[in-house]
Write a structure and sequence with these properties.
It is built from seven helices and three strands, in the order ααβααααββα. By secondary structure, it is mainly alpha-helical. The chain has one domain: de novo design (two linked rop proteins). Strands 1-3-2 form a three-stranded antiparallel sheet, covered by helices on one side. The radius of gyration is 23 Å and the shape is elongated. One of its GO terms (molecular function) is gap junction channel activity.
């Protein structure tokens, strides 16, 4: 899988973002996307082959692996990145619709490039809510699926066709735990940035409405 689409998408949305939004894009690029491509994929690349149990009962090892890892960490992380990043598609679609409409009616652009106002503001707010929501949902999903964010060295499995309770060993548990903590920290940072940007827009809108009402009363 190539990640060029997400890179182009985030770069295109970046010019319509505030300073906080640009920090979010930088965090997604550097601390999540690049870390995923360069390091994380290699760590989880052979996780099934390196998962070993102290018994050679046919099918036991596969069943135990599927029980403790119903979804691979790395695939769930990739899905999280995709869902969070493509939430910005709403902004891209809105901008494309606005530009096509103005071109069709032979109108000059009503808003300067990079300015967020009117309907585009509502779309941008929706994308912020979706991004923060997806981040939180996936963090909860990670925690529930794997009973926390720490990868154990040893797990005990007693699921059929295993004849009794067997010990199974996970490869590179310390390294995987460090990357999971990094994932959680970067996700939490993105949630804070999304909520901060959302609060910034709400504060600005509230201030503008208050000033308009105040000016009308003064007149």
């Amino acid at each position: 899988m190539t990640w060029g689409f997400l890179c182009d998408l985030l770069s295109g949305v970046n010019k319509y973002s505030t300073g906080i939004g640009r920090i979010w894009v930088a965090v997604v690029f550097v601390f999540r996307l690049l870390v995923y491509i360069i390091a994380a994929e290699n760590i989880w690349k052979y996780e099934h082959d390196e998962f070993e149990c102290n018994i050679r009962q046919p099918g036991c090892e596969n069943v135990c692996f599927d029980h403790f890892f119903p979804i691979s960490h790395i695939r769930l992380w990739a899905l999280q990145l995709i869902m969070v990043s493509t939430s910005s598609l709403f902004v891209v679609f809105h901008v494309a619709y606005r530009e096509n409409r103005e071109k069709y009616h032979n109108q000059k652009p009503s808003e300067s490039s990079g300015e967020i106002d009117g309907g585009l503001l509502c779309t941008y707010l929706i994308s912020l809510i979706l991004k923060a929501g997806f981040e939180i949902v996936f963090l909860v999903l990670f925690y529930k699926l794997y009973d926390g964010f720490q990868v154990p060295r040893l797990v005990k499995c007693d699921i059929r066709p295993c004849p009794n309770t067997v010990d199974c060993y996970i490869s590179k548990p310390t390294e995987k735990t460090i990357f999971l903590y990094f994932l959680v920290a970067s996700s939490c940072l993105c949630v804070v940035l999304n909520l901060s940007e959302l609060s910034y827009f709400i504060f600005n809108c509230s201030t503008k409405r208050y000033l308009k009402k105040y000016i009308k009363k003064r007149r």
